[in-house]
Amino acid sequence: MPRPPESTLSTQQRLRRIEGRHNALVKELRQAFTRAERTDDGNCAIEGLRIAEEAIRSGLRFRAIFFKESAQNMAERLLPQIGANVDTLLLPDKLFDATVPTDTPQGVAALVRLKEFSLADVLERLQVGPIIVLAGLQDPGNLGTILRSAEAFGSAGVVLGEGTVSPFNSKVIRASAGSIFRLPVVIAKAAGGLEELTTKLRAQSVRLIATSSHKGTPLDQANLTAASAVFVGSEGSGLPRAVLAQADELVAIPHTQQVESLNAGVAGSIVLYEAARQRRNA
């Protein structure tokens, strides 16, 4: 009897059971999680049911998807939405848990190819909202939060300066709730570093706005409706002096004196909200 086409195979027939940790795809997934970078062929590792569904909804191309043996119900849910040419692997619970970084994994992980963007792509979207430039932001939760807020409130894109946590960190992807799959994200060194970035922004008449926790124009008095790039610094030391020296304006978010400073993710989100509010009222 001829074998049915792969597109009509049942979930159980599509799943390929892997027993050993030395399988090439399992090793690739583990290394992608460990290094928090793209693999040699350009894929990144994601984990969790919601994130996998967001990747599907965002139209990302899957290289492979991995299911924990005790979570095969997720395969029933996800595989009908994934092309028949994608490798679908079933791992014993112990092997899956040792491969993904989460303490209590949900049971699904994948290798996917994120969309790639350039600074030119970001500049073409200036009508959407400000560019967010992050200089030395190290907490993955903060970066993920800013990415999510940038999509929610409107941003041309996010540029990651030197010392900023990798956007391929699994905690960043999880905290972004899928926004990283759709929002233009550019690494500054690909655009020549922050110094060259500011030169390119000025050439496009983009205003450079630096954020501060203590001094500067109160945020609600700053003009965020024009084409602008908002620079947010690290959680501990803020923005480098070289960046502050290049800024056209320094802005601060007013807050009570009892609080020394705001979390970088919160501060970035407030700036994005204020920019959206001003655009609505313009």
Characterization of the model:
This protein has about 280 residues and is of the alpha/beta class. The protein has two domains: about 5-115, Ribosomal protein L30/S12 (60s Ribosomal Protein L30, Chain: A, 2-Layer Sandwich); about 120-280, 3-Layer(aba) Sandwich (Alpha/beta knot), CATH 3.40.1280. The protein contains eleven helices and twelve strands. β3 (about 60-70), α4 (about 70-80) and β4 form a beta-alpha-beta unit. α7 (about 140-155) runs parallel beside α8 (about 170-175) and α7 runs parallel beside α11. Mean pLDDT is about 90; it is low at about 1-10.
Mean pLDDT equals 90
Classify the beta-strand content into a percent band.
Answer: 15-25%
State the low-pLDDT regions, or none. Answer: 1-8
What's the domain count?
A: 2
Distance between the termini: 69 Å
Q: Which structural class matches the secondary elements?
A: alpha/beta
SS elements, strand count: 12
Predict the CATH topology of the largest domain.
Answer: Alpha/beta knot
Which bin fits the share of residues in helices? 25-40%
Please tally the helical runs, counting DSSP H or I stretches of 4 or more residues.
11
